[in-house]
Amino acid sequence: MKENRLAFLLCLGVFGTLTILAAVFYQERIINLDMAFQALLILKSGSLEIQSGRFGAAVTQIWPWAAQAIGLPLKGVLMAYSLGHVLWPAILALFCWRIGQWRWSLAIGLVATLMTTHTFYWLSEMPAGLVFLCAVFSWMHAKGSFDAFRWWEWPLWLGALVTAFYFHPLVLYAHTFLCLFFLLEKNKARAWAWMHLAALGVFAALAFLKYKVLKLDWYDAAAIKRQEAFGKLWPNWFDIESNRVFLKWCVADYWLLWGVLAATVVYYAWKKQWARGVLVLGWPLGFVLLVNVPFYEAVGQQFYMENLYLPLAVFASIPLVFDVLRDQTKNDHLARSGAVVLGVLFGLSLFRIGQTHQPWSDKLAWEQGFLKETAKRTNRKIVLSEKQAPMDKLKMSWGSPFEFLILSSLSNPDSARCLIIHESPERFDSLLTRPRLFFGAFKNYPFEALPKAYFNFQDTSRYVRW
């Protein structure tokens, strides 16, 4: 089938390019905040390190875990971690293609690139969860109805939905959109509707169980606390700083996504498909408010906020692939211009991702420079305050001890260094004379607790304040 081959070639180009970028910029991606912290924990424990109950993260953590299990050096572990975040959606796109769901392969490619900018360098569970959700729907659509399920596929389907839910809390809104979108599809059998209603019900039950029955993780509890802003700010939800900042980001980075959404709304108006038009127009705008109102003071950095906005890529990609680019004269064919449109979208998105490396490379360069600057000091264990560091480059200070440790050990485990930047450096004053202690942002570790194969500390001098 022509479309099947075309989808394969487009995805091959997209994920091939992303793989190259992930290899070239593996240090920017992994020696960075959450990934540096999680990489250290994986190396320390020799097992997966799931945070905040988001066990879907196992699909990306399995790569560095396997690398350390077979004895690869630190560079190999970091490279595996970086590549794993690209190989995961690539594998899912291939899965969709193999079961004949070429549209879902293209959708995964768009979800992975259409909005991704800084989140290519600051990694989280959200992107992995969104593409997995797409793969689950692809499998459901290949089946067509529950009548085609074999007995062993029922627990597999339920387990897949539970896993998708526990990648990230906001996957819930992408899932709800997909269910509503396909429920509005015309000329489908009743069994099609029941399948999507059941999927919607599973997520609703999981949300009730997590937020009303089970005890919340501290991170999710803090997010729920932020929701009080809706009552506090009503009726001024639109006149807030976070909306103004978001508009600036849209002009600078996310204009392509909003262009796709605008074109899709025009398409539905032209076709007089009002229900889908209202959904595609209203759902993204409502979702932006859902994110922006709790962060009304615009306190989040762009990379963090972008991660929360990523479901917007689902809201834009699915209508484009399944409706706008459909050949109207043939039921399941790609319009002639569709390949060109997709090629342009992929090309522009990949170019934007590549260009965005600069601030992350600058951050890495400063840390490398500071390690070099302090390499010959008598006391090379250093505690700095945030006022003594270029926080515009570093984004956040809490990741600094893990970043410095991994970066210093990259060439040789014997060169492992202990440095930390903290907003309250005085909290470490009583520990400065503990020469065999690694200062961390959340917990301090004796040198013996960290694997010598990767971090063989040679410096036994005391810590000093910079």
Name its key features.
466 residues; mainly alpha; 2 domains; 3-stranded parallel sheet; two-stranded antiparallel ribbon
What features would you describe in this structure?
There is one protein chain. With 466 residues, the chain is mostly helical. The protein has two domains: 2-355, no CATH class; 358-465. 62% of the residues lie in helices and 3% in strands. It contains 20 helices and five strands. It has helices at residues 2-24, 26-30, 33-45, 58-69, 74-98, 102-111, 125-143, 153-165, 171-183, 190-213, 218-226, 229-233, 241-270, 274-292, 302-309, 311-324, 338-355, 357-373, 391-394, 400-409, and strands spanning 381-385, 419-422, 437-438, 445-446, 463-465. Strands 2-1-5 form a three-stranded parallel β-sheet. Strands 3-4 form a two-stranded antiparallel sheet. A hairpin with a 6-residue loop joins strand 3 (437-438) and strand 4. The longest helix has 30 residues, at 241-270. The chain is globular, with a radius of gyration of 24 Å. The chain starts with a helix and ends with a strand. The model has no long low-confidence stretch (mean pLDDT 95).
SSE-based structural type: mainly alpha
- As for the number of domains, it is 2
The largest beta-sheet arranges its strands as: 2-1-5
Binned, the helix content reads 55-70%
Residue-averaged pLDDT: 95
**Low-pLDDT stretches:** none
Gyration radius, in Å = 24 Å
Q: How many beta strands in the DSSP annotation?
A: 5
Which series of helices and strands comes N to C?
HHHHHHHHHHHHHHHHHHEHHEEEE
Portion of residues in beta strands equals under 5%
Count of runs of 4 or more consecutive helical residues = 20
First-residue to last-residue Cα separation: 65 Å
